Amino acid sequence: MKQEQHVIDQLNAYKRLKARKKQLEGTSVGPGVRLSAMSEDDHLQELHRQLRKLPSYMYLDEQEQRIEAAAHANLSKYPLGTKAQLSEVIRSRATASPEDEKLLRELEKKIEKVLEARAGSAGFEGYMGVIDKISELQDIEKQLQDIDQALDALEAYEPEYARLLKLRFIEGKPTEFVASELGIVDRTFRRWKQKALAEVVRFLSG
User: Fold this and answer.
1) How many angstroms separate the CA atoms of 196 and 99, rounded?
2) Residue closest to 165 by CA, chosen among 130, 134, 196, 198
């Protein structure tokens, strides 16, 4: 029951998340730079993954290779999301050797300089503000993606169930309106709703 209520809350929040996503994407973080462009840093990560198929000396100078080696030696994970990645670098410095700690601090400063340049801000608060907004945008995109995928999967074999959830919770239509649109009575509506929610719980938890 608690899981089903959580799904209902997510569906009810869908339109609000869409609106917030649009607002964040249009946020100006520097001359001619929108937050939507900065949130696509996963494209840079993909480029880096491609580059990593080559020997690092082909695209990194000697100091950058030392920084990369220190990161590999000390970071226990490589999380997605800029904020999480920065936090991992900062956390790893605490247990690194003095030499590696110095290299990780340099890596942290490199990240800050790139983000400050993109944001047109030299202030720490401005930099952290951009980090927070990017993190929020990425979180919203993940939530919307999860909901969309669950509803698409449901629609593939129970289209009426998916339509019921969209009309009732995403569009916020009254129960009577939804039942009329689907051509069912109230008792059938309640039964379909429970089954539909149970299916979406299964998709989201899988």
Assistant:
1) 56
2) 196
Q: Which residues of the chain have pLDDT under 70?
A: 29-33, 35, 37-60, 78-84, 113-131, 206
Please give the model's pTM, rounded to 2 decimal places.
Answer: 0.60
Q: What is the 3-state secondary structure of the chain?
A: CHHHHHHHHHHHCHHHHHHHHHHHHCCEEECCEEHHHHCCHHHHHHHHHHHCCCCHHHCCCHHHHHHHHHHHHHCCCCCCCHHHHHHHHHHHHCCCCHHHHHHHHHHHHHHHHHHHHHHCCCCHHHHHHHHHHHHHHHHHHHHHHHHHHHHHHHHHHCHHHHHHHHHHHHCCCCHHHHHHHHCCCHHHHHHHHHHHHHHHHHHHHC
> What pLDDT score was predicted for residue 177?
97
User: How distant, in Å, are the alpha carbons of 40, 72, 73, 191 from that of 91?
Assistant: 24, 14, 13, 50
**The two structure tokens encoding residue 83:** 């904020």
Q: How many CB atoms lie within 10 A of CB 35?
A: 22
85: tokens are: 């990645």
Residue 179 burial by CB count (10 A; 0-12/13-18/19+): exposed, middle or buried?
A: buried
Q: What angle do CA 146, 46, 18 make, to 5 degrees?
A: 30
pLDDT (0 to 100) of residue 5:
92
